[in-house]
Amino acid sequence: MLEKLKEEVWKVNIELPKNHLVVMTSGNASGRDFETGFVIIKPSGVKYEELSQLDLVVVDIDGNIIEGNLKPSVDTQAHLYIYKQLREIGGIVHTHSTYATAFAAMGRGIPLYLTELGDLFGGPIPISRYVPPGDEAIGREFAEKTRPGRFRGILMKNHGVFAAGKTPLDALKAAVTIEHSARISYLAEMDGNPEELSMEEAKRLNKKYTENYGQ
Ligand SMILES: [Zn+2]
Question: Which CATH superfamily is domain 3-212 in?
Answer without folding.
Answer: Class II aldolase/adducin N-terminal domain (3.40.225.10)
